[in-house]
Amino acid sequence: MGDFNLALVIVAVVLVVIVFVFNVYLLVNYQHPDDKNQAYFPKFVVVLGLSVAAISILMLPADVANRQACRHALYNGACKLTLPMKNLWLAVYILDAVLVFLIIPFAMFYYEGDQDKSVGKRIGSALCWVGVSAVVCGLVLGILYGLVGKVDFTVRHLSSSTVSFPSSWDFSSSQQCLGGSKQCAAYTASDASKKTWTMRTTFPEYVVALATIVGSVLFTIFGGVGIACLPLGLIFSFVQRPKAVITRSQYIKEATELGKKAKELKKAADALHQEERSGSKGRKWRKNVKAVEKELLQLEEDVKLLEEVYPQGEQAETAWAMTVLGYLAKLVLGVLGLIVSVAWVAHIVIYLLINPPLSPFLNEVFIKLDDIWGLLGTVAFAFFCFYLLIAVIAGAMMLGMKLVFITIHPMKWGGHSYEFILFNVALILLSSISVIQFCSTAFAYYAQATAAQEIFGHTLESLRGIRFLYKYNVFQIAFIILAGLTLVYYTIFGWRRKKTSGRFQLSS
């Protein structure tokens, strides 16, 4: 048992290091070229936020493995070498909330501050905005907690009469109570025995519950789209791959057209910058800014594609060979991802939407894998949970989202400044809480008696005002519908190549 826990600790430490290294790699490749060798604080926040999101997902399998370390003990405390998972969960939740509601907004306000101001003034301005946001959020949470911060548990009130101690017991499946009563057994009691037990939840649990609800909305949108677009995007990327290298004359022709397009966009950007200086930032100006940003992203994609189909330099043949191998890797990963996505959707339908469940499905697969080797089922469980988070990230990168005050643009490789990256990190952090809750529900049979289930328990599903969202599986149904719509979209439009747009002009 001690060796098992030692291996678990070693695996946990190694995974944490791998997660941090991988997120640094993502940051380096997604950041805008102008942000290199500067803005170190936002970079640290991005790496920390993505790492917390990934580690929080991996903690659920660790929770399961931690429980299995003492599965032969009479009680969990009998094993003194287990990880303190409940304390770790609370620490991760607190860090998640601090990042989403304090540190990331501060980094965004500081990064977007006037570069001509001193560092002290930019810090003071960012702290002011974060303070106002914190006060508003605190007031909203306090009011909601005071009004509806209660949980309503549906229970059965069971009772039994008393009789003299008999010489023999006469019980059957139809008569399980003493004295002819039927109110002592939950299965035979009448509906009148159902009662509602109301109690006030703790404020931290209420904050976690509300954050989970907000994250569930984002998870449903991004996860539903991502579970389909993640594998299909890789497969159709292979389908639309360049088949051969173009000639030099074709390259010159295409490069000339892209150069003209770049000049048009520069002219439009200069005009918008002049309008900004003059103070005329109306609806038309914002519309034109979004149009320029969209055309700029398309131009960057066209330039990247042109570089792929006409590699230059001494290693041109090697570069083309790596391009071909890259597309083949996308095909293989896309097929494997499609199998995992289909398994996820099938599991949601079989185990969550149908009542009673037709089969434990993936739960039973994980249990059988554990019988082969102690951590094999846990590794498979971790893979499915982490795949769901990757699907959420893929959905956020592809879809983008328009909110009231800000537009979240689809993430592109090497093309974003930190205000966009930070906002997407905040969305991923919020979604990660819901991914944990979703996985603990979807794999409840396998992940039973874990600290995660103790924290979530029935409190979230019994919270006043929102329990019907879980009672009627609203999020799961919306998840399946969005996945189906994304599949239809890729089936109809995924085969088509994007056509290059013509001459760009600002709307007048």
UniProtKB/TrEMBL annotation:
Pfam families per record: LMBR1
Keywords noted in UniProt: Coiled coil, Membrane, Transmembrane, Transmembrane helix
Subcellular location, record wording: Membrane
Membrane topology category: Multi-pass membrane protein
Coiled coil: 248-309
Chief subcellular location: membrane
GO cellular component labels: membrane
Entry-linked InterPro entries: LMBR1-like_membr_prot
Residues making up the signal peptide according to the UniProt record: none
Annotated transmembrane regions: 6-28, 40-60, 90-111, 123-148, 206-239, 331-354, 374-399, 420-446, 474-493
Protein name: LIMR family protein
Organism listed in the record: Rubus argutus
